[in-house]
Structures are given as C-alpha cells and as structure tokens.
Specification:
It is built from twelve helices and nine strands. By secondary structure, it is α+β, with helices and mostly antiparallel strands. A hairpin with a 2-residue loop joins β1 and β2. 33% of the residues are buried.
Length: 306
C-alpha cells in the first residue's frame, strides 16, 4: 500500500524516530499507526513511546473543591479568543459548581438547572452558541470524594481562579487532625500529577491491554532468551514502567530523591495519621481531540482570490 507523507510525519511527531524508519514501520504494518509505534519500539527506534498527543481543542478546564469532595469539567470552544471571554468563563465556573452533584455523569450535569436561569446546562450552552456565534460543548466531567480526609486540586495555566488549561483533583484519605497540612500535601501531589501525567495509581490500576502491550514489546525485544530469564526481564521492565507511569512509584517532582509513596509515609507525622491516595483525575484541555490543521497562507490566498 502507499504510505502518505502526512502519516509518516504523524508517526515521526509521535515517536521521534527517523523519517525512513517511520515509513518502513508503516509499510510493515499496513498503515496502522499504533502498530507502527510498537514496531519502532521493538526495534529500539522510538525515542518517545509515551508522548502526549497534540492538544488542539480550545476552551477551559474548570475545577471546584469543597473539603472532602471535588469535581472537574472540560468545556470546549472553537477558539482561544472565546475561552478568554468573561461570559464564557462565567459559564464554565457555574457548570463546574454543579458538577459535584452530577457525580461524574455527563448527562446528569447537562440536565441540571443552570444557576440563575430557568433552563438546563445543555440548553444554556446552546443559548451561548447563538449569542457568541461559536460552537461549544461540555465534553466530560469527573468527581472525587472521601469520607475522611480532603480532595485537593491544582489548575495549570490558570486564567481566573479555578479555570485553566490543565486541571487536577486528588483524593487523600486520612484520620489525621491537621487539616491544613493534609490540604497542603494534596495540592503538592496535584501539582505532581499535572506535571507527570500518571497512567494509574499503581500497576494494578493500569489497563490490562496496556500491560499486555508492554509485556509483548519486552518479550519481542528479548527473543531467544531462556523462559526463566525472559520472565525476570519482563518483571524488571514492568517495574521500570511503573516508575515512569504509576503515581505511587514515580519520583516526587518536589523531591526526586523520594517516591510519592515515601512522601505519603513521611507525611503521617505532620498530618497525625496514615495518608492514602484513593483516586485522582487529570484533565488536559483537548487531549484526544483531533482538530483540522488549517493552512493559513493558503486560506489568505484563497480569500484574496489568489
């Protein structure tokens, strides 16, 4: 089959491998880009196996917390110009304020009555589309809650309080009486999550298909080795994967000499009781959304009749 230059470029951007290597990989797997990523990794040619996808969608991430609970929402717009609009920002803030009661159910959030209006959130968004003249949507929402402890948050690229480009919630369960210390720790860990983008809390929380994919790559790279040796190599490889991708095993960004697990253990004295992370949510604006890339020069030329 013919491999397009745009597909080769996409694989190069995703992996950092050479153009010819990318073309060879795509040819081998008949244009399947994810299979091509694996092919390059097996050959040791991929320089960035876990590179985040290009974030193109605009809008804002909204965060709200109240002691033992918190919620995060993503509301998209077509342009960053609208995301800077005070009316749009007010809308996202108010939608976020309703999100905790929706408990992560997007349909329930859209059906909730918009604050100060006699219409639902979904209907109000439609009104805003008509008013501003740009398409918008409430894309997703998540909530966290703990019986004892705190739900902390962090907003990166904050434009106004609680709104920005990346939003993180983290739930810390603890019987400790030092609420201020626990809240400060939650914020620091939320900042860590924003920076490192962990896949899961620990290996047990990693999707089975992801683990199987990692095992297959390790096994393929070490073909021919005795089964008992290969078993140890795979186990060691998964430990390395956990250090990069699992929150509790990651090096703490505020003190890389410690893991997040060690930081939680050390915090017990200040908090007054054991501290456990029961969950986290990290939303980066537009992740997973593919947006058409416009050729601005060609657009201007077309408008000018050239």
């Amino acid at each position: 089959m013919t491999i397009s230059a745009s597909l080769v470029k996409e694989l190069r951007d995703k992996t950092g491998a050479g153009m010819m290597d990318c073309k060879s990989a795509l040819t081998e797997v008949k244009g399947d880009i994810e299979a091509a990523v694996d092919w390059l990794r097996k050959k040791g040619l991929s320089k960035a196996a876990k590179k985040a996808g290009r974030i193109a969608a605009e809008g804002l991430i909204g965060i709200t917390t109240s002691g033992k609970s918190g919620a995060v929402v993503e509301v998209n717009s077509e342009t960053d110009f609208v995301a800077r609009n005070e009316q749009f920002q007010d809308m996202v803030t108010k939608i976020a304020s309703l999100a905790t009661k929706a408990n992560g159910d997007l349909a329930k959030l859209l059906a909730a009555t918009f604050p100060g209006k006699k219409v639902s959130v979904g209907e109000y968004v439609q009104e805003m589309i008509a008013t501003i003249g740009e398409n918008m949507s409430v894309r997703r929402t998540a909530t966290l809650e703990v019986p004892k402890g705190v739900v902390g948050s962090y907003v990166h690229g904050q434009v106004v309080p609680g709104l920005g480009k990346i939003g993180v919630l983290v739930a810390l369960s603890s019987d400790g009486k030092n609420a201020d210390e626990l809240a400060a720790l939650a914020r620091q860990i939320a900042m860590h999550i924003a920076a490192t983008n962990p896949v899961a809390l620990d290996l047990a929380g990693v999707p089975p298909e992801t683990l199987e994919r990692e095992k297959a790559i390790l096994a393929d790279k070490n073909k021919g080795k005795p089964p008992q040796v290969l078993e140890k190599i795979v186990a060691s490889g998964l430990k390395s994967y956990a250090k990069d991708n699992c929150l509790l095993d990651q090096s703490y960004i505020h003190d890389p000499s410690k893991t997040v697990t060690q930081v939680l253990k050390e915090a017990e004295g200040k908090v007054g009781a054991p501290v456990k992370i029961t969950g986290f949510a990290r939303y980066a604006l537009g992740e997973g959304i593919e947006k058409k890339e416009d050729d601005f020069a060609a657009e201007v030329a077309a408008a000018a009749g050239g």
